[in-house]
Amino acid sequence: MSKPAARRQAELRHAGGAAVAGMALDERALWERLCAAPIPDHIWPRVGEYFEAYRGERAGIAGARHRRRLEMIAQLPWATRSGGAPSVEPVRQALDARHAGLAEIKRPILEHVAVQKRRWRLGGTPTFTPLLFVGPPGVGKTSMAIAIAEGLGRPVVTMSLAAHGDAEAIRGFDIAYMGSQPGMIARMLVQAGSRDSVFCFDEVEKAGPGRGSSRGNPVDVLLEVLDPTQNGAFRDAFLDISLDLSQIVFILTANSLDLHPALLDRVQVIPLRGYHDEEKRAILRDFLVPRLLEEHALTEQDVEITEAARDLLIQHSPEPGVRGLQRMVRTLLGAATLALEEGAAGRVVIDPDWLRRRLGPPQRPPTIGFRPSPREIGR
After folding, report:
1. What does DSSP assign to residue 247?
2. Residue 144 confidence (pLDDT)
3. pLDDT-based confidence at 139, cuts 50/70/90?
4. Are 248 and 226 in contact (CB under 8 A)?
5. Partners of 297 in the β-ladder
């Protein structure tokens, strides 16, 4: 047994834990996992308490809850880091690989990374200000967060806050309650496997107490998570231990700025406007068509989308984002794949006539009611 493991065993016994001798096989296996994990010293007294509770009630529901606690504590990335010194060029390349244009959006991101690089070089600890990307659906807010994580060399975990209607869903449920479980933050840490990962909270404007909920407002917990003076000791209610979130990079997305004022104070807001036609053409040419051809096991020798057909696709896509454009290209390539497999053609050329037969006439924006311009978001 290694010295750290022996030391932890002694600490566990001192905290009231049982000696390894006499443990059942599953208890011994769990104990060895705990000893192998780099759990901080100040957490070990609580681990000893939980382990004793588990052994005393292992046959019941309470024992199963204590075991789940211990298993999650063993899985948490107490010491694992994935990112090194922040660097501007990898982030720039990752953003350019996922997003055409948008120089005015990328610049504040790169400036922020540059500041953290200097802090690192001067011996400080990078402290990334939470970023909030605001814009209409389909403009690449979540994709922007993924690109930042790729450029930083860190894992990213995304979670939609629309599905979390109370504070306990984020902080965790007290173990005394039936159906108790760890909170969203603790689960994201385990999923990321790194204490300096990137957390992306989607649809922040939809976070709020559900109808009839008496379990608190999730925005209050989110404020604590984003606060650098508090997130170094975030307490999960199920685990009942403190988690260090100070090295996490937080990125939020929202469709509007209809948010709690205190939340806006915690973040740097970066608006994402809708794409104009030339940007959509570039996205179609450089991103969507190559990726969807590969998705359908096709090559440019199998299917050609003419320039006139691409222009018509843009007319079919009046929304600010490109999700509708992506769906239409996927529909066209699905039809082309079927034609090739049925032997109707050796090569499919998608021209305007071919496109109209499958998609119908171009869609028109609604003329009744108010349709806000993407550039008006946040005004």
Report:
1. T
2. 93
3. confident
4. no
5. none
Residue from 134, 168, 165 nearest 264 by CA: 134
User: What are the tokens at 346?
Assistant: 């050796």
Regarding beta strands 241-243 and 234-236, do their DSSP bridges make them parallel or antiparallel, or are they unpaired?
Answer: antiparallel
Q: What is the pLDDT of residues 181-207, one digit of tens each?
A: 899 999 999 999 999 999 999 999 888
Residue identified by tokens 């298993």 is 71
Q: Round to whole Å and give the CA distance between 14 and 37.
A: 19
What whole-number distance in Å separates Cα of residue 166 and Cα of residue 215? Answer: 5
- In the numeric block, which tokens belong to residue 219? 């925005």
Which residues share a beta bridge with 52?
none
User: 3-class SS at 60?
Assistant: coil
Strands (E), the chain: 131-134, 156-160, 198-202, 234-236, 241-243, 249-254, 268-271, 303-305, 348-350
> What b/e readout covers 284-312, taking b as 16+ CB neighbours within 10 angstroms?
beebbbeebbeebebeeebbebeeebbeb
Looking only at the bridges linking them, the beta strands covering 241-243 and 303-305 are: unpaired
Q: What is the DSSP letter of 131?
A: E
Pure H helices in 19-102: 25-36, 44-56, 61-75, 88-98
Among 289, 185, 274, smallest CA distance to 234 is for 185
pLDDT band at residue 379, thresholds of 50, 70 and 90? very low
Q: What burial letters (b/e) apply to 187-196, b meaning 16+ CB within 10 Å?
A: bbbbebebbb
Q: What is the pLDDT of residue 303?
A: 93
For range 210-228, the mean pLDDT: 77
| Phi, psi dihedrals of residue 250, rounded to the nearest 5° | -100, 130
What tokens appear for 328 in the block?
């239409």
d(CA 102, CA 273): 9
Q: Hey, what are 43's tokens?
A: 């957490």
Q: What size, in residues, is the chain?
A: 379
Mean pLDDT of the chain: 84
Give the other-Cβ count within 10 Å of 160's Cβ.
15
Q: pLDDT at residue 177 above 80?
A: no
Domains defined for the chain, CATH in brackets: 3-75 (no CATH), 88-271 (3.40.50.300), 277-359 (1.10.8.60)
Q: Coil, strand or helix: which one is 209?
A: coil
